[in-house]
Amino acid sequence: MDSQVTPLTDESYWTTLWDGQQHKVRHLRRAYVANRQLAKLFHRGLAGFKQPTLIELGCADSLWLPYLARNYESNCYGVDFSELGCQLAQRNLALMGVNGTIICEDLFTFAKKQRAAFDFVYSMGLIEHFSTPQAILEEMYSLLKPDGTMLTITPNLRGMYTPIARVASPKLLATHKVIPPVRLAAALRDVGFHVTEYGYTGGPLKLSVVDYSPWRAVIGKWGHEVLCKCVNLTDIVVGNLLAGLGVPNQQLTSPYVYALCRKPDKV
């Protein structure tokens, strides 16, 4: 890893997180407004590519790699430094019956060997876990082919999600840098990207953007399961209701910040 970049998490943090997922088979459910909006973002990002070579950075337990492999006939790769997370990502590909390559390696080490190798690079909760997010954006830039496209998504831990996170998972705030859309777009331009769009996404509500796993120690395994089911049901019912009423994506309640950008064809 670059000596000037300090990660805000370590492998043990992620191993603990993914340990709670290894006995669950998750599915990409379009009942969530967030998933439908993210699918549209991917569609815009991949427009114009035929059988693209793509990679997810920080791919642990990814549900989107199988989706992209199946729907875009893409040559899919994923990289993550968590061994357990990589096993879950590989399992998800197998369960969907699609092919993909999962690489268990530090991102900075991997990027040095894969310059200009991918048509599409994306991350879904990565850059905010580092002291210098711009350093990760530089690696994403180096991985892209000229005229390639990059999509980065981070949780929106502002607005209503800040007080919820303080109660549900104080460590969540300590392991994330808050990156507003304008600041994200500026950082991307500084790296050399041409930013095509940026803002908030994920719909008008997604309470599950916050990690509730610390409450397992307080209310027990089954209590935690009930809590998560209530949160997910609220996301589906209330999220779809608010979306149907035309509530727009905005800072107060939308779960994600995103930017879609392109690497110039002459660099």
Describe the structure.
This protein has 267 residues and is α/β, with parallel strands linked by helices. It has a domain at 11-155 and 174-202 and 256-262: Vaccinia Virus protein VP39 (Rossmann fold, 3-Layer(aba) Sandwich), CATH 3.40.50. Helix content is 43%, strand content 18%. The chain is built from ten helices and seven strands. It has a seven-stranded mixed beta sheet with strand order 3-2-1-4-5-7-6, with helices on both faces. Strand 2 (75-80), helix 4 and strand 3 (101-104) form a beta-alpha-beta unit. It is globular and about 50 Å long. The model has no long low-confidence stretch (mean pLDDT 87).
* Beta-strand residue percentage: 15-25%
Query: Can you say what the CATH homologous superfamily of one domain is?
Result: Vaccinia Virus protein VP39
Provide the residue-averaged pLDDT. 87
Strand segment tally: 7
Broad structural category: alpha/beta
* Count of helical regions: 10
Helical percentage: 40-55%
Strand order, main sheet: write it out. 3-2-1-4-5-7-6
Poorly predicted regions are none
Major sheet: 7 strands, mixed
Q: How many angstroms does the end-to-end distance come to?
A: 25 Å
What is the string of SSEs from the N terminus onward? Answer: HHEHEHEHEHEHHHEHE
The CATH topology of one domain corresponds to Rossmann fold
* Annotated CATH architecture of one domain: 3-Layer(aba) Sandwich
